[in-house]
């Protein structure tokens, strides 16, 4: 009996994953299989990371005894395990007449289920940058609140008394731009 290495869909809607199995040529895909040699999880989520797991020893054994991978398994092995199987041959036709650029794929390496130190450092840098921005905005808000409190009993500046020359549209902070725009709208609404 011929054997094939197949992809068996085990996922559900919006959460696909495939087992890589060794099965007889004539067997149904949902039927019994000889051995499971890996799995492929193309989409990651909060609980499960995007990953490909291959049992290299079992896969080498089955390829050495003549198990033929299906086209999907060929593509998967060529992408993530090129030492096992070469890329599938593109049939001659209009699609193969020109060179297509190679797509860059990123496979994140995991050591014992933990992220590498590089990704942790990038995450920490981003968190620090975000915290600095939050602190800057909070300081600016406090200074403005203190300035409004010293203006008068109401704590609201006189909109008519302000000049439009000091308002810039190139403000870095989006909140300042929105506030400036609202003040200008109030002024134009009074003069209509």
Overall description:
The protein is of the alpha+beta class and 192 residues long. The chain has three domains: 3-87, S16 Ribosomal Protein, Chain: A (2-Layer Sandwich); 108-157; 159-192. Helix content is 37%, strand content 14%. The chain has helices at 56-64, 71-80, 117-151, 174-190, and strands spanning 3-9, 18-24, 35-41, 51-54, 68-69. A five-stranded mixed sheet has the order 4-3-2-1-5. A hairpin with an 8-residue loop joins strand 1 (3-9) and strand 2. The longest helix is centred in the C-terminal third of the chain and has 35 residues, at 117-151. The chain is elongated and about 90 Å long. The protein starts with a strand and ends with a helix. The mean pLDDT is 77.
Main features:
3 domains, S16 Ribosomal Protein, Chain: A, alpha+beta, 192 residues
Q: Percentage of helical residues?
A: 25-40%
- The helix tally amounts to 4
| CATH hierarchy, class of the largest domain | Alpha Beta
Low-confidence parts: none
Corresponding CATH architecture of the largest domain: 2-Layer Sandwich
| CATH homology group of the largest domain | Ribosomal protein S16
* Major pleated sheet: 5 strands, mixed
End-to-end C-alpha gap: 89 Å
Domain tally: 3
Looking at CATH, which topology of the largest domain would you report? S16 Ribosomal Protein, Chain: A
């Amino acid at each position: 009996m011929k054997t094939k290495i197949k992809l068996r869909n085990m996922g559900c809607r919006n959460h696909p994953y495939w087992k890589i199995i060794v099965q007889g040529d004539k067997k149904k895909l949902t039927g019994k299989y000889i051995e499971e040699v890996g799995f492929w999880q193309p989409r990651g989520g909060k609980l499960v990371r995007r990953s490909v797991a291959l049992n290299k020893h079992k896969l080498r054994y089955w390829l050495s005894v003549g198990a033929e991978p299906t086209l999907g398994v060929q593509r998967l092995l060529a992408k993530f395990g090129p030492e096992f199987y070469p890329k599938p041959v593109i049939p001659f036709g209009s699609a193969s007449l020109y060179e297509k650029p190679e797509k860059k794929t990123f496979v994140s390496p995991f050591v014992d289920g933990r992220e590498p130190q590089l990704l942790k450092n990038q995450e920490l840098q981003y968190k620090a940058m975000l915290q600095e921005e939050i602190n800057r905005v909070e300081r600016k808000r406090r200074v403005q609140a203190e300035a409004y409190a010293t203006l008068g009993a109401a704590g609201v500046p006189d909109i008519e008394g302000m000049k439009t020359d000091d308002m810039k549209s190139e403000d870095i902070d989006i909140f300042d731009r929105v506030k400036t725009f609202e003040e200008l709208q109030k002024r134009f609404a009074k003069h209509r």
